[in-house]
Design a protein that fits this description.
Blueprint (H helix, E strand, L loop, with lengths): L10 H14 L3 H17 L4 H16 L9 H15 L5 H12 L3 H14 L4 H13 L3 H13 L6 H14 L2 H7 L9 H13 L3 H14 L2 H4 L1 H6 L5 H13 L8
Helix pairs in contact: 1-2, 1-3, 2-3, 3-4, 3-5, 4-5, 5-6, 5-7, 6-7, 7-8, 7-9, 8-9, 9-10, 11-12
């Protein structure tokens, strides 16, 4: 975080640091700040691949959070930025990782898997890319494959990021391997991100902690108000296919989603 405030740092690096911090601590304000900063950088340097890639990822966030005007096309903006990044640096792994998520949000699971494979071809040692493939497979319902990739990536990662843990939870949970799933969600009640908190609600309910489940659901709704009034839309905007979303919603409803808050 300190990088953002170093006086001698370049504008480009400061914006990338700000965008990275956004990725670690999500809030609408941080999202807009990071996005607007990177828009200025990309306008000044149309071939800076890290900025193009990160800005593409932030436009996916615009779509997930429904934060733009209805006439805007954040996925189209992301697509153009990522295609430009790939044109400038075809051997780079990162643009394909973000393109993978774009294809998933557009409902094209096969294209998402193909983009993930290209990312790994460009950098076979990138465990984040491998885990990204696993996350996509979890969201399209290919759970056994997802668990295999995510477990392998976790074994090679010094600190397993929470999104990786969540997608392992998702795959295990939807396979019915609830004990293993709940082990993955053991510390999610401390999260500030919506999906891990949703998993924490499910785990708390299974442990008989209805108050904890209610707190977790309320925390998700505070972060993402759409979660309470349109939970399926919330999940679909994050690339969950309909069967995967429906299966997870069974557990969320059992955990208290839809009940009137006390």
């Amino acid at each position: 975080q300190d990088l953002v405030n170093v006086p001698e740092i370049s504008t480009e690096l400061a914006c990338l640091a700000r965008a990275w911090n956004h990725d670690l601590a999500i809030s609408p304000e941080k999202h807009r700040e990071a996005r607007d900063c990177l828009v200025a950088v990309v306008n000044a340097n149309a071939t800076l691949v890290p900025a193009l890639t990160m800005l593409g990822a932030l436009h996916l966030g615009d779509f997930r959070h429904n934060s733009d005007h209805p006439t805007d096309d954040p996925l189209g903006r992301a697509d153009r930025l990522l295609r430009r990044a790939i044109h400038v640096a075809p051997s780079s792994s990162a643009p394909y990782q973000v393109l993978q998520n774009l294809m998933l949000l557009r409902g094209d699971g096969e294209a998402a898997v193909a983009a993930g494979l290209r990312s790994l071809q460009n950098n076979p040692e990138d465990m984040i890319a491998l885990a990204g493939d696993g996350a996509v497979l979890a969201r399209i319902g290919r759970y056994e494959e997802a668990v295999s990739l995510l477990t392998r990536a976790a074994a090679e990662t010094a600190v397993e990021p929470q999104w990786m843990q969540f997608h392992t939870f998702l795959a295990l949970n939807n396979l019915g391997r609830t004990r293993e799933a709940d082990e993955r969600a053991a510390f999610f009640d401390r999260s500030t991100a919506a999906l891990p908190l949703a998993a924490a609600a499910i785990r708390a309910h299974r442990r008989g902690d209805e108050a904890g489940a209610a707190r977790a659901i309320a925390a998700v709704a505070k972060i993402e108000p759409e979660f309470r009034h349109d939970p399926k839309g919330f999940l679909r905007r994050r690339g969950f296919t309909e069967p995967v979303a429906d299966r997870l919603l069974v557990d969320l409803v059992a955990a208290g989603l839809g009940r009137t808050p006390p």
